[in-house]
Amino acid sequence: MATISKHTAIARIISDLIKADNIIDEQEIKFLAKLESVYGIKQKDLVQSQLVTFSDSVKLLRDIMTQSEKKVFLNRLKEMSLIDGSCCTQEALLLVALEYCFNENYESHSELLYCESSSIIGDNERYAIYIESEPDAEINEELQQKSVFRNIQNAFRLNGFDFIYVPYIVNEFKRKDKDYIKNVIRYMSPTCKCEQIDEVYNRVCGIDTCAFTNEILYKRMGVDVMNTEPALLINIGSSLVPYCGDKEGNKVYTEFLRINIVNGLQDDLTQFVDNFSKYISEGVQITPTITVNRLKYFGFYKALFDLMLHTKAKSDIVINPNISKKAIYFKDINEYLNVRQNEKALYILMLKESICNKVDKGLLYAPSEKKKASLERAYREIYGRFTSTELQTDYVTGIAQSVSHIRKAISELRNLKDVDSYMPKKIATDGVYRIEIDSPNVYVYDYKTQSEVPITEFEFD
To answer: Global pTM?
Structure first.
């Protein structure tokens, strides 16, 4: 993504709000011109604003604006949202997100998060999901009281949200006929073997809020909810950030507002509903659907079911750059990658470039001389950590053959699930070898701290 500035951030937020109702009113354009003058926004800022996310724009302004500046800016945005006579649902979502991030009463326990959109959570659906990294006995006990859950659910439905408490959805699956659910799984994924169908069914019926938060949201989707406190996670949409790709073209990001529970579950959830409803100018009530042996294959139910269907249990990779035989360890299956020393260094470099290089997102196989020099230094640094043997060639020479050896060795790890995620793939359009594994699955053993740290936080040089 592009480097973000104050002017770029302001332009991004204003642009998203104008486009929120899919109608660009003449009065909004006039108001935009006024705001451009007030904040000194130039044409170049409008261009750059297409390369950043709404969330990153809000984060920057929260850090650099004074409290009074944030208040004035938010009031101007509220005025703009009503200039056409009404405030639509999407405008209200953006405004309430801004209020939680800019208002001193909420900003200490609220933030915006995002992940690359992949239709996992429907972009056109509105959810408020209870999340936690560690179980909170008091809150879960409260939510499991039917009267409390129904009151919360109804309050959200009146404002167009589906309130999601994962154990309740799991119970819906459990109440249905087991053979019926397995037949649905077989239909949705006809390549599944009997034991795999059982595995998917058990995953669907066994997931809890912590597993959903840590394994699905964080590891699978890449939403930064690691070690989150009990919180409400609200999907605020993704259609408003369609230009986040640089050289790879358009990218869409799903964005969320996270509100930590600090004043009690019912108080904080009621506060959000009240804050949202004061902006809204249209009817948005959701009518509940009663089902017996029917699987709700839409909205969040579809999302969760699809995730359980297609998400396999992945193994974490632990890189130990100081021990040759244990350089690449597949932790969950207790196996090491058995390839040559230079191929271990190459695989580690491909992991590093695929995850940490946000521009190329992979290891260039025909780089410019300048980039090659930098990558070659990194390659030799990694190689030199676990062997004193002299390297005979650079990493580019024979790279195709080395990748072939690596792929063969990975394919021989019989207990490894979702093998394709660990395979280096040649992406000719980008000129890279890429490993499409989620970054939370890759760690490096740090001898200084005697602990495993995410690859994104480890310095190899």
So the answer is: 0.67
